[in-house]
């Protein structure tokens, strides 16, 4: 009770009065949509989102591959790229099998 009367409640009220409303980003999105057209029906917007998600997925898969072959020394990828039976060769084989490219 003493904290709510004396210390915390006035500080919270002061901070709240200076913050922008929670829906300001929704107003910005609505104004952008009215100005430039509805992005839901824009095919280039959909392609850019798919490209962004696809590149993030490929980056995550690359990192997971390096982590998976790290027990074979996969972090030294550039040194092992020409040698046989190394972690880099195992990772390359995995990606060839995954993507369907056979020698």
Automatic annotation (TrEMBL):
Positions of the UniProt region annotated as Disordered: 1-27
Pfam families tied to this protein: Photo_RC
Bilayer-crossing regions: 47-69
Topology class, membrane: Multi-pass membrane protein
Keywords of this entry: Bacteriochlorophyll, Chlorophyll, Chromophore, Magnesium, Membrane, Metal-binding, Photosynthesis, Reaction center, Transmembrane, Transmembrane helix
Location in the cell: Cellular chromatophore membrane
GO cellular component terms listed in the entry, alphabetical order: plasma membrane-derived chromatophore membrane
GO molecular function, one term: bacteriochlorophyll binding
InterPro entries: Photo_II_D1/D2_sf, Photo_RC_L/M, Photo_RC_L/M_CS
Top-level taxon in the UniProt lineage: Bacteria
Chain's role: The reaction center is a membrane-bound complex that mediates the initial photochemical event in the electron transfer process of photosynthesis.
Protein's name in the database: Photosynthetic reaction centre M subunit
